[in-house]
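Support request, please re-run this one:
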Amino acid sequence: MAYQPQVVDARVVSNNPKNGLFEIVVKLKDRTECRLMYDKEANGGAKVTHINRLYKEPCPICRKDFLCNCMSRFIDDISAQALAKTGTPE
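Re-run finished. Output below.
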């Protein structure tokens, strides 16, 4: 069975309007929490640059309790769901 992340909660935790950078922390259905870093584009859209899993739960994919890069495979899907919940900050 393939892993399908589902965002249940998302909130903007930092926003820097001067340089267009902002961060969103998301909570997934499997209790995993991730931090997404964004850069605002010239047309007003947001481009996700990084994703980090917060180490409150083991990774749902590889079950490691330390640094792994599994969530980077799902960065576009998680980002789309997070932006749908929070929107792009002004």
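The mean pLDDT is 92. DSSP finds one helix and four strands in the chain.
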